[in-house]
Amino acid sequence: MKFFAPLLLLLFLSQIIFAQAIDSPKTPKKFFFYWGYNRGMYSKSTISYHGPGYEFTVFDVQAKDMPEPFSFKVYANPKLITIPQFNFRVGYYWKNNIYFTAGWDHMKYQSIDGQSVIMDGHVDKSYSEKYADIYDHKEVKMTHKDFLKMEHSDGFNLIKINVEKHYNIWQTPKNQIAIQALTGTGPIFPLTWTNSTLLGKYNDDRPHFSGLGISVFGGLKVSFWDRIFFQYDLDFGYVNAWDITTRPKGAPDRAKQQIKYFQRKGVVGISFNLRK
Fold first, then answer.
1. From CA 107, how far away is CA 86, in angstroms rounded?
2. Of 55, 69, 237, 268, which is most buried with the most CB atoms under 10 A?
3. Residue 174 pLDDT > 70, yes or no?
4. Residue 166: Cβ-neighbour burial (10 angstroms; 0-12, 13-18, 19+)
5. What is the spatial distance between Cα 42 and Cα 260, in angstroms, rounded to a whole number?
6. CA atoms of 157 and 106, how far apart (whole Å)
7. Are 119 and 147 in contact (CB under 8 A)?
């Protein structure tokens, strides 16, 4: 219930904002671009693993994000700014304050080390002598070093194509400062880059399209001179990742999980027109 509270608050506030929205006196710039950073929260997830010699499921796996500690050496270095959890987006103005946008949310996902979970399934001796067993609703400790770890740390990368609606709330007479609310939705194409441990065997995989998802979001945007803007969004999403790779390239081993996430992101951007 705690996980859904921010979404309910977002929907409630959006209704108040829409009721107070006003019309804009001028047409917005045709394009925008933004860059920023995020923090994420994840609901509990059921993860199923299968491959030669094993098939099992672990239930109610808890996870966290992996924020990079703030440092000017990282966040202000163009060569390193993709290390933190970042957000990138470009948008095109259509009409009536409606935008079509495409972007990349670079989130990070890591199961919590040492948690107790329930496990069902089997592991054969042909795959692992140590963990060979029939698991019938058995409680196990999910230790990362030598048992199980699910980590999309080189990216729980979400490629998004969205439709956004912006609502004008307030602006100065000459539009030096303007405040807007916005909402949007669209599909997610998860490009997971998974660093997992599977029954003690480590895997550092390459980026891999692993499923589909959908998100809904809302936020506030403050613009200056119709050019520079700051934006803060709350984003709720669901991803069904049914094709996660858990062993090196070429191996048939796979996992699947459904991830619900809540994301807070702050970005800075620029609006512009292309010259003819």
1. 7
2. 237
3. yes
4. buried
5. 6
6. 5
7. no
Tokens of 179: 């405040």
Residue whose pair of structure tokens reads 């809302």 in the numeric block: 218
Close Cβ partners of 180 (under 8 Å, ≥ 6 residues apart)? 97, 166, 167, 168, 169, 220, 221, 223
Angle at 67 between CA 261 and CA 219, to 5 degrees: 50
Q: Are 187 and 216 in contact (CB under 8 A)?
A: no
Q: Helix, strand or coil for residue 139?
A: strand
* Residue ranges per structural domain of the chain: 5-272
Domain 5-272 has CATH 3.40.50.10490: no
The average pLDDT across 203-227 equals: 92
Q: Looking only at Cα atoms, what is the longest distance across the chain? A: 75
Q: What is the pLDDT of residue 16?
A: 45
Distance CA 238, CA 212 (A): 9
Q: Helices (H) and strands (E) in the chain — how many of each?
A: 2, 17
pLDDT tens per residue, range 31-59? 999 999 999 999 999 999 999 999 999 99
Under 8 Å between Cβ of 271 and 226: yes
Model confidence pLDDT, tens digit, residues 84-129: 999 999 999 999 999 999 999 999 999 999 999 999 999 999 999 9
Three-state secondary structure call for residue 233: strand
Structure tokens of 257? Answer: 């999980």
Tokens at 189, concatenated: 């194409």
d(CA 36, CA 110): 21
pTM (2 d.p.):
0.87
Q: Rounded to a whole number, what is the distance in angstroms from the first to the last CA of the chain? A: 52
Using the predicted structure, report yes or no on whether residue 204 has a pLDDT greater than 70. yes
